[in-house]
Amino acid sequence: MNSLRLIGLLLDYPSEDLWLHKLEVVEAVNESTEINAQQRLALQQYIQAFCKQDLLDAQSAYTGLFDRGRATSLLLFEHVHGESRDRGQAMVDLMEQYRAAGLEIDSRELPDYLPLYLEYLSTMTVSEACDGLKDIAPILALLGARLQERDSAYSSLFDLLLAMSGSELASEDVRPSLQQEVRDDTPAALDAVWEEEQITFLGEQSCTSGEEAAHQKRFAGAVQPQYLDLDAGPLRVTTTEDARP
């Protein structure tokens, strides 16, 4: 699915190549038969508007949006596993899927980076790619909703991915659950996350419980991102406290 590769390109860190080859990218969208005419037009208009920005401004906005805080991270497992040990095994399993598909992963990117996952799906049949998108539909809806809350044009790309997946989920379905969510990309929130505090291991606690206590102490008062429970059937957004075993 050529359109998935193009959307992945648009969700990656803005590069000069996109600006230089804008017309070629727009033309490639026109050749993407897996999306309908209305979707092709909307994507072409998005590219035209996006590339009217100054490149440095686009890069700065991207960093502020996706690399500051966890709520809009493009690392998929951030929204499922957080910092739990399950995330490591999920990474290993995904890497095996990439290798089985004949893909070599650049060591600079983690395997759950969304643009990389979209490139992987683009090598599959339309049916397989749609199933792969449907697997992450709750994450796409959550990210799309958070980007809508931030008035970001990037949200439209997540709406398009959801439409392509065939999922019944939409970003609008998630927005009500975000009304009480506190932004985690403010200076105060970022300072709270990185603030170092003294760690005290208590009595006969095991190493695991000691690490958990240290984590709770370090992030006490910090903004808590929400995580998704993908095994709960319908989309459910849970807090980090709910996500811990």
Question: What report would you give on this structure?
Answer:
- The chain is mostly helical and 245 residues long.
- The protein folds into 2 domains: 2-178, no CATH class; 187-243, no CATH class.
- Helix content is 55%, strand content 2%.
- It contains 14 helices and 2 strands; from the N terminus they run αααααααααααααββα.
- It has helices spanning 2-11, 16-20, 22-30, 37-50, 55-66, 86-100, 114-121, 126-135, 137-149, 155-165, 171-174, 187-194, 207-218, 240-243; strands at 226-228, 237-239.
- Strands 1-2 form a two-stranded antiparallel sheet.
- It is globular, with a radius of gyration of 19 Å.
Give the overall average pLDDT: 77
Written as H for each helix and E for each strand, in order along the chain, the element string is HHHHHHHHHHHHHEEH
Q: How would you characterize the largest beta sheet? A: 2 strands, antiparallel
Q: Give the assembly state of these chains.
A: single chain
Q: How many distinct helices?
A: 14
Reading side by side through the largest sheet, how are the strands ordered? 1-2
How much of the residues is beta strand, in percent? Answer: under 5%
Shape: globular
- The total strand number stands at 2
Q: What is the count of structural domains? A: 2
From the alpha-carbon coordinates, what is the Rg to the nearest angstrom? 19 Å
N-to-C span: 38 Å
Low-confidence stretches: 189-194, 196-227, 229-245
Proportion in helices: 55-70%
Structural class: mainly alpha
